[in-house]
Amino acid sequence: MRPSHSSAGLHSPTSASRADWRTIRMLLPYLLEFKGRVILAMVLLVLAKLTSVAVPLVLKDIVDAMAQPKAMLVVPVMLVVGYGLLRLFSTLFGELRDAVFAKVTQRAIRRVAIQVFAHLHNLSLRFHLERQTGGVSRDIERGTRGISFLLTFLLFNILPTLLEIGLVAAILFVKYNPWFAIITFVTLVVYIVFTLFITEWRMVYRRTMNDMDSKANTRAIDSLLNYETVKYFGNEQYEVRRYDEQMSKWEVSAVQNQTSLAALNAGQSTIIAVGITLLMLLAADEVVKGNMTLGDLVLVNVFMIQLYMPLHFLGFVYREIKNALADMERMFTLLNENREVEDAPDARPLGLQAGRVEFRNVAFSYDPDRQILSDVSFEIPPGDTVAVVGASGAGKSTLSRLLFRFYDVASGSIAIDGQDIRSVTQASLRACIGIVPQDTVLFNDSIYYNIAYGRPEATRDEVLQAAQSAHIHAFIESLPQGYNTVVGERGLKLSGGEKQRVAIARAILKRPAILIFDEATSALDSKSEKAIQDELRNVARDRTTLVIAHRLSTVVDAQQILVMDKGRIIERGSHRELLMLQGVYAQMWALQQQEEH
After folding, report:
1. In order of start, what are the domains of the chain with their CATH numbers?
2. 3-state secondary structure 101-118
3. pLDDT tens per residue across span 460-514
């Protein structure tokens, strides 16, 4: 994901405004979902502004009526009541408008958040290995908040303010000396130009501030997730220093942001003050000449005060809308992040029959300059178990990632029951494969939830049965809260062996046709391993199984064992055949036998 501040520095004003319009356009479909509500909100908006502009006109009539000689005897009651009603309605219409529009705003936030969340789950494993969780979550949080701000303020502050300015200028132009309208317009134009210019200049600071905020947040979350590692090495102060490095950069940007904001506010206030002074001088002169009444003077003054508030607010709103657009642009860049692995346009669901898996001349690399697999070919007949062994980094785990289609092969193909996995839907492919990974990461939820995750619609009895099959039921029952025990962030409250058993239970519950054990018993002690091993054999019976192993004792029963080295298969055969071969496998076996005795 490209950093926001770097793009801010490179953005020309035109490309930035293009990006802003693109962001606004992305929101339009969400607005059109509730056309009726949007139209009603607009009608209420116009009514609120018309009543607001009518208030000073009635106030002028009251002042003029009170200025008459008989005013002491007759208070213009109807005018005063009308004045009160107009004030009430200008607020009431505004509140009704907010109430009507609330559903539009909240639905848009919900839709966009769901879209981004779903898109992130559809992105490739490569993106998620490179991403920084804290920064991404902060981008989504700020982006959804930006939507709320943009919709509310763009429609309910900028539009009505411009409408009010137009109405006031028209009244001043028609009723009084044209100079009133001219001064109002000139003040407005100078104000808007000044605001746009300074706000554009300030956006660089805002973007940098956001970027530093995301980076600091990412660093904090990363450090806290690795709490134990920090403690092992006594690096608390080092982590604080690293966090402070980001926070100090954020502080510089935040100070620049705040200072430039003060300059903007001071400039805006000066422009408004000059405009109002000129108007009041002109109005006072007209009253002295007898061209205007005292009520007219009050009218002009109230109009100016009424315009001053939204005008002053217009600057703030424009700034905040620009900020919201910057926040949303950051979130929408996540939506523009391309999926590396996509379903083919004509992809069909996998037609599963026996569950035969074939790797044909598969080559693959994560980076062009580092080949991981070269010309790998093997077959797992239906219901058979094939084991893959070899040194760390030989490319064993990459086989499972390719079979799950987290990545696509560079050349060659992988097929299930004769169907190239690139020609079927990813959902149907993954539905028929179960995995017990080497490093089991659990959700920060109950043990029951984590086992049931294998098949969320499973009954409670099925979940308990899966736990019994994985030899973890008795352990769970012994806990004070049983199946409702919360496992902690990433399952940290459970031991490695307990987490592994939960993973096995989860895979059993999924009832897949094809099973992958990726170093599935590596976290277990010898006694647990033997118990689990028997269970894995039961689970694997009648299922096509790929076992990726480091400990050779776990694969002696496999129908075929593949020995890998530097991304190639260098030996293949059964345990007995490979020992007779007296090659690499036989050496590994002898070495591990020595270690165990």
Report:
1. 4-336 (1.20.1560.10), 344-432+512-597 (3.40.50.300), 438-510 (3.40.50.300)
2. HHHHHHHHHHHHHHHHHH
3. 999 999 998 888 898 889 988 888 988 876 666 777 778 888 888 898 898 888 9
